[in-house]
Design a protein that fits this description.
This protein is an all-alpha fold. The protein has one domain. It is flat and about 30 Å long. The N and C termini lie far apart (26 Å).
């Protein structure tokens, strides 16, 4: 289960990186 979660998170992060990395990082730090 943990491996599946990590794989999904990496895929999700890859999507966000190709989307708007700066905005995502700022939102993550703010949260």
């Amino acid at each position: 289960a943990e491996r599946e979660f990590i794989r999904r998170m990496k895929a999700h992060l890859a999507e966000l990186e190709s989307f708007k990395p700066e905005q995502y990082v700022e939102e993550t730090i703010a949260a």
